[in-house]
Amino acid sequence: MSAIADEASGRAWTEAADRRRRIFAIIGASSGNLVEWYDFYAYAFTSIYFASAFFPSGDRTSQLLATAGIFAAGFLMRPLGGWLFGWMADKHGRRTSMITSVLMMCAGSLLITLMPTYASIGALAPALLLLARLAQGLSVGGEYGTAATYMSEVATKGRRGFYSSFQYVTLIGGQLLALLVLAMLQALLTNDELTAWGWRIPFLIGALAAIVAMYLRRSLAETASEAAMHSKEAGSLTGLWRHHPRAILIVFVFTMGGSLYFYTFTTYMQKYLVNTAHMDVRVVTFVMTVVLVIYMLLQPVFGALSDRIGRRNNMILFTALGALAAPPIIFMLAGVSSPAAALLLVLAALTIASFYTSISGVVKAELFPTQVRALGVGLTYAIANAMFGGTAEYVALWLKSAGRESWFAWYVAGMVAIGLAAALIMPDTRKYGYLEGSGQVEK
Fold first, then answer.
1. Within 10 Å of residue 11's Cβ, how many Cβ atoms?
2. Cα–chain center distance at 13
3. N or C terminus of the chain with fewer C-beta within 10 Å?
4. Is 6 helix (H, G, I), strand (E, B) or coil?
5. Same domain? 267 vs 142
6. pLDDT tens for residues 75-90?
7. Interval 286-341: pLDDT, tens
8. By the 8 A CB rule, do 270 and 392 touch?
């Protein structure tokens, strides 16, 4: 009996140690994700203060447009980052790719922190700012696919949805952290101090946090096998297109509708409530902050749900409910006057989004084999995200200026509805996926 008890105790200890190791790996991977998204949003939130530092004095709107243009350029680097870091992760390991991406983000933030102004070095200042943002855009483009792949692979069978949901927890958390840092600086410094030097502080914080994330990632165990990394197909773009067209199509369509829906009800919604519903900007900021906190906390719940009902059913629910709900919610928000009503409507939309965002990484990772997983997820996501997520605000504002604002709601619904078709042809990854199933996704 003693031997049996000792064996049971040893097994329990081993399982507990394994669980701790996996949790640490999730923290290490997601900490870098948080830092990357914090740095990316810090630029957007502080640009109103540093625009005059990097561009010739003159019209403030033109200065802001120039900083927005550089922000967009960083966004357009994502597909290249998805390819570069996806190839690196499949060919040289997930850990190497994740360490490199967070160091690149650190370098970009540190460069912005220390950068001389236009008054000091002239036209070289905006050129250096562009260089820093291109590096950060490349880094963020590579972060998604590699982190999604690693978190999916390191999670235990039957709990991949729950563990992988922390990718979006940290994505939203990075946005909230950037907002919190800015709010604290606004409370502690005057507008003149923020414009003169205070805007550099968020970038310094981002650079230091990236160093911490880099050290956490250095201790992570590699999940890609030596055989996979040294196979002929590892990181091969040609092999990816030739052998996995169905998976590429499904991931592209899911990202197309999912990213458009996500950006509509997060980043664009703040402007929509101010410009269309005519709510006070401070009230809207408060409403959206509360919504994002609740939305962040919902991710593990919906991730765990996918472990019970399957990723395919999660996607069917998101695409069906999202396509049906997007137009009425957007139309009701256009005339909303109560902050509570606005909060409940946006929260309802993002609750539906949680069916997708909580499993955004793992549902794609399950569709590709190890040797092209990071490349398949990262590159396909980055292209669709840049095309549809990155243009969401532009399309909405262009339709508004053309007097056809209501069309945007139908555009969102249509793109999400296309995702329903992809969800219906998607195989049940519990049976046919590459992480837990037979790997017969293409059959």
1. 10
2. 35
3. N
4. helix
5. no
6. 788 889 999 999 999 9
7. 898 899 999 999 999 999 999 999 999 999 999 999 999 999 999 999 999 899 99
8. no
Are 388 and 345 in the same domain?
Answer: yes
- Within a domain: 228: no
Residue whose structure tokens are 């790997």 = 439
> What single-letter DSSP state applies at residue 195?
I
The answer as to whether 166 is a domain residue is yes
246 plus 182 within the same structural domain: no
Same-domain pairing of 253 and 345: yes
In a domain, 5, yes or no: no
Helix, strand, coil shares of the chain, percent, nearest 5, are 80, 0, 20
Number of independent structural domains in the chain: 2
Amino acid at 375: L
The enclosing domain of 51 has a CATH number of 1.20.1250.20
User: What is the Cα–Cα distance from 198 to 134, expressed in whole angstroms?
Assistant: 23
- DSSP E strand stretches across 217-361: none
Please say whether the beta carbons of 288 and 270 come within 8 A.
yes
Do 99 and 130 share a domain, yes or no? yes
The token duo for 342 is 């606005």
| Predicted local distance difference test score (pLDDT) of residue 137 | 84
Question: Is 371 in the same domain as 281?
Answer: yes
Q: Report DSSP state, residue 179.
A: H
Residue 186 lies inside a defined structural domain of this protein = yes
Residues 21, 23, 29, CA angle at the centre, nearest 5°?
A: 100
Distance CA 136, CA 229 (A): 26
Expressed as residue numbers, the domain containing 334 is 233-436
Query: pTM here?
Result: 0.86
d(CA 406, CA 385): 23
